[in-house]
């Protein structure tokens, strides 16, 4: 197996990464200071209005803020941080894990029009609230856990265990694979018709980012890569990923597609990707929406010499 | 708050990242194929000999391999992959989570002499075995979980839940912060005397790698950074981190140290870092051992123009 080396290159323009750039001070010291936290957790403190995991959207659009006074007394409160000096919280509704998940197209219909800064704030809050909803018990001993450190920890309530648990962030590699100027993109069965995107997969225990990229491309497309370069990253709150965007060079062109992962994978020319990004109906593919890092990686790629 | 942009640069030499480079085919399709897995899970299949989480070291040094025939019948078996065509497993000893952890200096005494390729294989196995030991119950409902997919999943046994859980990999940023040619390094109280290392911290829900770097440096040292660049990554099996090594440029020099995290932080000159890496007794600091990515980042930094 090829062992790719760690490498990168200067990204000369700023990528407009969506779900990033939340204008909030996470105020880490507050989390570990129960007195300061209690002081901020007042009825007039700001509460991000959520209906389960989805935002409550006022008629005028944008996120909606209430105060802690309106929170369900049975809800757990998560401290998001300080925004313009004001303490901001989100509530974990009781029984949230038991609710049916809202289908993703519906979620996107609700949040797709949010300004980027609000999308970033919402995404971070959603990841945290969702984690609390799905981690109510101690994975070590099975006892109930209680929220701690303003929602940045859960602690086992069993006196003989007392294990601490932390919000989960799962690193995922997502990669543009290039061969002689062409780009490898694939489609999963769940994609909209004609849509292709970058290959992707979770980083596993015991591998570097570069090794994960090489393994995923080998598994899904049957080709070896070299010169893996980091390009950019994105938090992706469905439910808790850190997308690590990379570029790699393929050592060969003949694909062997893993049909359990991909419905198709193909090499596309620079011109084809260009047409697709421009929304040209003559393009032989549709590319992911701009909120996905895969889209931004394509924009970055076209901007390279 | 400064929003750093995603950027990197060509790393012109290969960094000898420890815990990476395991010579094993993870054979992902096998995990999802119960028949194939059963076929490989024969008494003569290879078993990595562990005593809890630590390797059983034969007199001649190196990892020790037995066969599945010698595994505790009550142990869960984790499929590590194929090595030279042979199926390799590790066992999760019953009651492992209840054992007292072996202190890190003792762990290092045991594994420090392993060749890099064995260290990588051991590190990946340790992460996985440790995860199983500490995740025996469903975080969603509290019921017991059972090993699935050859150890790359645990599934809730409760018929009304059936949640799936996956091995955890926690992304951590670790960064060299530079200001006019000097480097910011800090020390935690637990470090050996005179030792300094790169600042580091977990990536949180809702932030990019670059944002995590900027936040950590702001929190721990009180300074703003820009031009965050990815350099290299490392799996770190104590217990389950993915170290994401970066470089950033400080916008100012005056430090405000977070005493809850750091005992000290200082700017060191290139010459001082050079002396420390060379092991010169006249150096004003000790640097981390070569197995830590912080060491490799320093080597990388000195190799830059």
From TrEMBL, chains A, B:
PROSITE patterns linked to this entry = NUDIX, NUDIX_BOX
Provide the cofactor list for this protein.
Zn(2+); Mg(2+)
Give the UniProt keywords, A-Z.
Answer: Hydrolase, Magnesium, Metal-binding, NAD
User: Is NADP set as a keyword in this record?
Assistant: no
Entry's Gene Ontology BP terms: NAD+ catabolic process; NADP+ catabolic process
The record's Gene Ontology cellular component field reads: cytosol
| UniProt catalytic activity | a 5'-end NAD(+)-phospho-ribonucleoside in mRNA + H2O = a 5'-end phospho-adenosine-phospho-ribonucleoside in mRNA + beta-nicotinamide D-ribonucleotide + 2 H(+)
- Enzyme class comes to hydrolase
Q: Give the domain of life.
A: Bacteria
Ranges for domain Nudix hydrolase:
167-299
> What does the record list as coiled-coil region(s)?
none
Q: Recorded E.C. number(s)?
A: 3.6.1.22
The record's comment on protein family reads:
Belongs to the Nudix hydrolase family. NudC subfamily.
Kindly provide the name given to this protein in its UniProt entry.
Answer: NAD(+) diphosphatase
Which organism encodes this protein?
Novosphingobium piscinae
Upper taxonomic lineage: Bacteria, Pseudomonadati, Pseudomonadota, Alphaproteobacteria, Sphingomonadales
């Amino acid at each position: 197996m090829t062992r790719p080396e760690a490498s990168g290159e200067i990204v000369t323009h700023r990528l407009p990464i969506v779900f990033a750039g939340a204008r909030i001070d996470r105020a880490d010291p507050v989390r570990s200071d129960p007195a300061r936290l209690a002081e901020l957790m007042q009825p007039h403190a700001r509460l991000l209005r959520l209906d389960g995991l989805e935002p409550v959207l006022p008629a005028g659009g944008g996120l909606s803020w209430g105060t802690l006074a309106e929170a369900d007394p049975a809800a757990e409160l998560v401290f998001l941080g300080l925004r313009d000096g004001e303490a901001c919280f989100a509530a974990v509704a009781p029984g949230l894990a038991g609710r049916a998940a809202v289908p993703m197209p519906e979620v996107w219909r609700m949040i797709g029009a949010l300004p980027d800064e609000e999308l970033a704030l919402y995404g971070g809050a959603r990841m945290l609230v969702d984690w609390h909803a799905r981690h109510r018990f101690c994975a070590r001993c099975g006892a109930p856990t209680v929220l701690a450190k303003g929602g940045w920890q859960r602690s086992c309530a069993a006196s003989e265990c007392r294990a601490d648990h932390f919000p989960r962030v799962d690193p995922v590699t997502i990669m543009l694979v290039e061969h002689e100027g062409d780009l490898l993109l694939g489609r999963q069965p769940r994609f909209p018709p004609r849509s292709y995107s970058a290959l992707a997969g979770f980083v596993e225990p015991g591998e570097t980012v570069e090794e994960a990229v090489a393994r995923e491309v080998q598994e899904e497309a049957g080709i070896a890569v070299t010169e893996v370069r980091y390009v950019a990253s994105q938090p992706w709150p469905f439910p808790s990923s850190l997308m690590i965007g990379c570029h790699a060079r393929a050592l060969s062109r003949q694909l062997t597609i893993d049909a359990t992962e991909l419905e198709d994978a193909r090499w596309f020319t620079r011109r084809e990707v260009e047409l697709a990004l421009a929304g040209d109906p003559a393009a032989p593919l549709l590319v992911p929406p701009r909120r996905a890092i895969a889209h931004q990686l394509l924009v970055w790629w076209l901007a390279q010499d």
